[in-house]
TrEMBL record:
PROSITE patterns: S1. This is 30S ribosomal protein S1. Residues 8-19 have a biased composition (Acidic residues). InterPro entries: NA-bd_OB-fold (IPR012340), Ribos_protein_bS1-like (IPR050437), Ribosomal_protein_S1-like (IPR035104), S1_domain (IPR003029). Residues 30-102, 120-185, 206-274, 291-360 form the S1 motif domain. It comes from Salinicoccus halodurans. GO terms for cellular component: ribosome.
Amino acid sequence: MNENSNEVNEEVSAEDTPQENEVSPGFEVGETVKGTVYKIEDKFVKAHIDDSDFEGIVPISQLTSKRIERPEEIVSEDDSIEGVVIKVENEDDRKNVILSIRKLEESNAYDSLQSAKDNDETITGTVMEVVKAGLVIDVGVRGFIPASLLSDAYIEDLEQFDGQELEVKVEDIEPEKNRVILNRKRIVEAEKAVERKKQLETLDVGSIVEGEVVRITTFGAFINLGEVDGLAHISELSYSRVEKVEDAVNIGDKVNVKILDVDPEQERISLSLKQAQESPFDGFVKEHSEGDVLEGTVRRLVDFGAFVEVTPGVEGLVHVSEIGHEHVAVPSDVLKEGQTVEVKILSLNEDSEKISLSIKETTEPAPRSSNNEPKVYRDDSDDDGPTLGDVFGDRFKDLDI
């Protein structure tokens, strides 16, 4: 009997104790598992977990970080999936694990984003939503581009980017706060820097190109030539004297400019509006010659003379010695700025574009007054009386007087 009892016990023991290869695996929260989708419901997806008798359940909220209405937008039956365990239900009547594909994707995405930030890599994302302060963009997780980091210039209409794929840089990342700040401005700036360099290499000193006035300062105007801006100094805006830049150009004006100098290293370009036009001096020389008398306006008075504008943009110098027949110590003693005068052309120098003028050559010298004639003293007396020489003789000859 004891032998039979032992045999029964051995049989029961063999039935109740699972063999080593029959032991169901255990799962822990945070563990990554794989499975195959076999059923799709409205609010969840079911999958067979590989190498186990557990069933995996993925709620629709854990399928993806994207906004979806139905699970079929993301998965299909027989799809292989991979997710992280967020709950284990290991009971007699059921063996389930609740999975999150979204958390696993986010974890991988954060690792990828951190690597992109560390290596300053460019990544691509799709704009999911446009908000007042910027753009929400899908880069594996929800990222954000502030409006200030969208471009190098202010963009008023952000809606134009809705649904677009954009190249961005990772500006800042905090996985624990689900915070990813992206930057598109740096990419725009880098692209423009390349374009600026290309254009700088194609600009030829002396050539005339079209540009647009984009900024005005007290010392000149900045003119955009495409990818680069150049400066036209106030002295190069017009052949006429310019007191204020606004008197010559306005923002938005389309103008032709001559390239005076290009510095690729400093990205500086010197421009001239006036030299892109025909010089008024050339036109003046064609119509006038030495000896001509014409009317002009005194524009500037200096110690050595007066600059007189004889036609718009053309000035000549009246030397102080050519102002009047009488001696003139200071030009301002006889002339005023804005005064209209008659001048005679003394010389024209086409190489230096200089004109010598004379005011006195257009007038006759004033007649001399009789009161100014030198007086001659004569002795008409018939008196034969003694002279001083007769009285004193040679007494004063050795005096130094």
